[in-house]
Amino acid sequence: MSTFKAPKGTYDLIPPESAKYLAVREAIAAPLRNSGYGYIETPGFESVELFARGVGESTDIVTKEMYAFETKGGDQLALRPEGTASVLRAALEANLHKLGNLPVKLWYSGSYYRYERPQKGRYRHFSQVGAEAIGAEDPALDAELIILADQAYRSLGLRNFRILLNSLGDKECRPVYRAALQDFLRGLNLDEDTLRRAEINPLRVLDDKRDEVQKQLVGAPLLRDYLCDGCKAYHEEVRELITAAGVSFEDDPKLVRGLDYYTRTTFEFIHDGLGSQSAVGGGGRYDGLSEMIGGPALPSVGWALGVDRTVLALEAEGVELELPASTSVFAVPLGEEARRVLFAKVTELRRLGVAADFSYGAKGLKGAMKNANRSGARYTIVAGERDLAEGVVQLKDMESGEQVAVGVNEIVAEVESRLG
C-alpha cells in the first residue's frame, strides 16, 4: 500500500472505468467540432481578480469555494473554478476577436477546482467540456449551443434529462427587476449573510438551495414580468428555434444559476436520477463579461457540461456505452526468436491502426494466455520454435476457441481481414 492517497473530494480515473470518461468527452466534443468550434486550452490557474470580476465577488464560488494562493513572487492566483472567464481572457489576450470572423467559436475540456463539501456528484476536482461563442448577439447562436448539447447527450444514449430555460434580461430591464426583488427580500426573515447578498446581487438569493429560504421566496417577483420588449423578442426567438429543431425544454422563471455574468438566455440540463446534484450542465449568455475583465464589448454565450455527472447519469439510466476494444490482438511468444518475430508483427499491426499488445516478461504459455484473456483481445497470436521452423504462427480466436496455423508473412494481412 502507498503511504499517500488522493486528496479528500478528488478521485483517480483508472482503467477500465476511465474509458467511459474519455468516451463522454469525445461525444460532447464531436458536435462542436462539426459546428465550427476550435479547441482551446488554458492554464489550470489564473489571477484571482479574473474570477472575482468575472464570476462575481458575491458568489459562493469566489467567497467560499476558490482555491486561492500567493506565489513566491507575490502574485495572487487561484485554481480555476470554471472555464468561461479563462477562455474569454485567452481569446482577448490573443486578439481573436480582431481577426474579422465573429463569433469566435471555441471548445475546451479540462479539470476545475472548488472547495466544497464532497458528496456523490459534487467533487473538489471535477471535469467539464465547455463551449463559448464570443462576439455575436444572435438568438440563433444561443439556440445552436443548446441544440448541440442536446445532440451530445442523445448520442450517448441519455434520454431522461430535462432542459430548463429562462431569460435574465439585460442592462435595460434587469435594474428595474433588481430593485423590485430587493424590496421583496428586505421584508423576509433572512440571515445577515443572505441579506448582504441581496444588496449586492439579489438574483443570487433566488438560487439559494436551503428550504427555509425557498419557502419564503413564494410570491417573489419574477423576472419575466419585467423583461423589456427587446429581451422578450430575443427570448421568444430562442424558444422558437429550439422548438423547430425538435428539442423540448421547460420554461423556468426562477432559473438564475450561480454566476453573476449571465444576461438574457440562461439554461440548465437536469437529470432527475442524480438526487440533489441533478444539474449535469448549463450555461447562458454573458454579454457584459468582456467589459468586466477589461476587454471591449463582446456579447457572448456558452455552456459547460459536467463529465463526472454525465457518467453518473448514464449509470442511473443503465446505459452501457459501446467502447472500442483496448486490445484486439495479443501476441504470445515462446522463446527468444519468437519474441523478436512477434514483436515486429505487433509493431506492424499498431502502425496499421490495429490495437495490439504483447506478452512481456518472458512468461510461460499458461501465464501468457491468462494475460491474453484479461486483455479482452479477440485474437491471440502464439509462436514457438517449432512454429517458426515451419514458417507459421498460431492464430487463436478467443471467442470461438478455434486455432489455425497462418504463415508468418501472412499473419498481419489475415488479422486485418478478420477484424474488418
What are the main properties of this structure?
420 residues, alpha+beta, 8-stranded mixed sheet, 5-stranded mixed sheet, 16 strands, 38% helix, 21% strand
Question: Care to give the gist of this entry?
Answer:
It contains 16 helices and 16 strands. The protein has 420 residues and is an alpha+beta fold. The strands form 3 sheets. The protein has an 8-stranded mixed beta sheet, sandwiched between helices. It has a 5-stranded mixed beta sheet with strand order 13-12-14-15-16, sandwiched between helices.
Structural summary, described in words:
With 420 residues, the protein is of the alpha+beta class. Helix content is 38%, strand content 21%. It has 16 helices and 16 strands. It has helices spanning 18-33, 48-54, 60-65, 84-93, 139-156, 174-186, 192-200, 203-206, 211-214, 229-244, 289-292, 307-317, 336-351, 365-375, 385-389, 411-419, and strands at residues 38-39, 45-47, 68-70, 76-79, 104-113, 125-134, 161-167, 250-251, 263-271, 279-285, 300-306, 329-333, 356-358, 379-383, 392-397, 403-407. An 8-stranded mixed beta sheet has the order 1-5-6-11-10-9-7-8, sandwiched between helices. Helix 13 (336-351) links the parallel strand 12 and strand 13. Helix 5 packs parallel to helix 10. The longest helix has 18 residues, at 139-156. The chain is elongated and about 90 Å long. The protein starts with 17 loop residues before the first helix and ends with a helix. The mean pLDDT is 92.
